[in-house]
Amino acid sequence: MTAGTQAEVSAEVVRMLGAAADADVPLRVIGGVAIYLRTKDVVPSTLLRTSRDIDVVTLKGQGVRVSGFLTDIGYQGNERFNSFSETRLIFYDPLHDRPVDVFVGEFRMCHRIPLERLELEAMTPPLAELLLTKLQVVETNNKDLIDIYALLYAHEIGEVDGETINAGEIARLCGSDWGLWRTTTGTLVRVRELLPESGLDTAGQAQIAARIEQLRQRIEAEPKTMRWKTRARLGDRVRWYDEPEEIEHARVELKAPADAP
Fold this sequence. Notes:
By secondary structure, the protein is of the alpha/beta class. The protein has helices at 9-22, 31-39, 63-72, 79-84, 127-135, 142-154, 167-175, 178-193, 202-221, 226-232, and strands at residues 28-30, 54-58, 76-77, 88-93, 98-104, 106-108, 112-114, 156-158, 164-166. It folds into 2 domains: 1-124, Beta Polymerase, domain 2 (2-Layer Sandwich), CATH 3.30.460.40; 126-240, no CATH class. 43% of the residues lie in helices and 13% in strands. The longest helix is centred in the last third of the chain and has 20 residues, at 202-221.
């Protein structure tokens, strides 16, 4: 497999995912790059943003294959971290000073989002899971807000996948996890309140607001599991989310070939 990473992030992601498909390696992109790829042809310029980092996901049990694949296409792994982690791997593009995070089987930050439906899309997880990776953030920053607005502006809410945000899947996951429900519904309220600061025109704000309400109602209508109801009794008295650890990406020192000048 030919190595040689691209300087422009979205071009590199397209190269990476194309090579993964050729090698039959289950790999999809998440984060700002994924949202840019899924919304760039529809959203106004105020909702377009670039990202320097690359975050990708794979299925449970595929970490070893993905590690070998990324090494083949020009990345170097943080061997110490990767040897101790089963659900997250760190790689680094030494040519462009760029980190790559690999989430294996699940996306875990403030909450756990299972990644079991990657086969439904060629480049990213389904839109439901992609949106949840942003809604599960307890302390949303401006980048998170832009990404959430972009997805809700570009895609309708429904009960199917593809180019529709599958509200049923989001509701199912929230209906079995009170903590995820608590954060997701709270984030929806917050992003609705901040819409006037989004830079969107009145029509754009109204469209997003309507989709937020549609999604919120679908989540509330979902039957809740006994586990959800048991945890709900404790409410906010017990912290319902994790504090994501900031992992400093190890910088891999490039070693020049022995015959280099």
